[in-house]
């Protein structure tokens, strides 16, 4: 009883109800994980997470560890103001990149959490891939820094929310004619046919 009983019930409901920005296409073959109010740069984390989309779990983890070891770089595409250039991101079709170690460590923790959730659902962790990953800006944290002539300037932190959805990849199903061992008919262009005739001594009129 009491005047705050209803409020407490609503708080419990909201606590149990965690919302994700995107729901998986196949919930029975997917797992989710999230982290809130992480004290890590939003812009660096967003660019790092963007580079993981569509990768398998093992490849994503290997990429993040390589970035921490400075063997690979994260391409910066959106938040690329005053970001230096590096040849490491040439394969990704970018010119600017960084090695945000703190962001990589937090993303590795979230992926590890999602992997544990997948194991609880009896999913094959070696077949998981990153279906969806999202980084949102959390509420800024305010501090102050002291300047010349007795002035005070804001000294803000830009924390992040991270959420990830991993999905088990479906096995490729072979077509019935492939199972039977039937040969595929290979298309040959007219130019190639003419070349073959010329090589064998045949002419077009024959």
Labels describing this entry:
206 residues, 3-stranded antiparallel sheet, alpha+beta, 6 helices, 7 strands
Gross geometry:
flat
Compute the gyration radius: what is it? 27 Å
What is the arithmetic mean of pLDDT?
86
Number of beta strands: 7
Please report which band the strand proportion falls in: under 5%, 5-15%, 15-25%, 25-35%, 35-45% or over 45%.
Answer: 15-25%
Give the topology string: H per helix, E per strand: HEHHEEHEEEEHH
Poorly predicted ranges = none
| Major β-sheet profile | 3 strands, antiparallel
- End-to-end CA span: 101 Å
Output the structural class. Answer: alpha+beta
Number of helices: 6
What is the spatial order of strands in the main beta sheet?
Answer: 1-7-4
Binned, the helix content reads: 25-40%
What does this 3D model show about the protein?
With 206 residues, the chain is an alpha+beta fold. Helices cover 33% and strands 21% of the residues. It is built from six helices and seven strands; from the N terminus they run H-E-H-H-E-E-H-E-E-E-E-H-H. It has helices at 5-16, 42-50, 57-68, 101-120, 176-179, 190-199, and strands at residues 30-38, 74-75, 97-98, 128-137, 141-146, 152-157, 160-168. The strands form three sheets. A three-stranded antiparallel β-sheet has the order 1-7-4. A hairpin with a 5-residue loop joins strand 5 (141-146) and strand 6. Helix 3 (57-68) runs antiparallel to helix 4. The longest helix has 20 residues, at 101-120. The protein is flat. The termini are far apart. The relative contact order is 0.19. The mean pLDDT is 86.
């Amino acid at each position: 009883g009491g005047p705050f009983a209803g409020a407490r019930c609503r708080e419990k409901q909201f606590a149990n109800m965690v919302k994700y920005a995107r729901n998986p296409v196949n919930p029975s073959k997917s797992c989710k994980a999230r982290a809130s109010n992480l004290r890590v740069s939003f812009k660096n984390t967003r660019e790092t997470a963007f580079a993981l989309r569509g990768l398998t779990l093992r490849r994503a983890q290997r990429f993040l560890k390589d970035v921490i070891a400075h063997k690979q770089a994260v391409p910066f595409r959106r938040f690329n103001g005053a970001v230096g250039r590096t040849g490491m991101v040439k394969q990704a079709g970018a010119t600017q990149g960084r090695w945000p170690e703190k962001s990589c460590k937090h993303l590795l923790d979230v992926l590890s959490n999602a992997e544990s959730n997948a194991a609880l659902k009896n999913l094959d962790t070696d077949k998981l891939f990153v279906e969806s990953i999202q980084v949102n800006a959390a509420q800024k944290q305010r501090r102050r820094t002291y300047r010349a002539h007795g002035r005070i300037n804001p000294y803000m932190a830009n924390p992040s929310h991270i959420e990830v959805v991993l999905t088990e990849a479906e096995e490729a199903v072979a077509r019935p004619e492939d199972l039977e061992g039937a040969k595929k008919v290979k298309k040959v262009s007219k130019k190639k046919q003419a070349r073959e005739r010329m090589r064998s001594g045949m002419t077009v009129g024959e």
